[in-house]
Amino acid sequence: MKNNIFSETIIEVQFYDLDPMNVVWHGNYIRFLEEARCDLLSKIGYTYSDMKDDGYTYPVAKMDLKFIKPAIFAQKLRVVTTLLEYEPSLNIKYQIFDQESGEKIFEAKSMQICFDVKSNTSVYEPPKRFVEKLRDYEEK
Known about the structure:
alpha+beta
């Protein structure tokens, strides 16, 4: 797989994202990552709905988070999401930058395991349709 499968998602920090210290509560970064991951999968053409239709889920098994600088109310964030690997697990890298200055404020990685809903077991190769969509995307 080429390392050119990525997306950029713009998120504006809302009031409800803040903690009592008036910075983004640490748990909300996970929501930002989820939004960015959905954008990436949509760009590839294989969404969570497609996974469900094919009888698979991809639950998060591991996340590594690095908080560099807090995000604040009304700040526009640019989330760059890069697919690192999809076999045997879905590994994604995230970087969050301040939209205006370009300063990196957060980075993370997630690992998701493919899970067959019918057999209730982990699967170590991705769904066929997902691989086809990745190949189609890389050929563009």
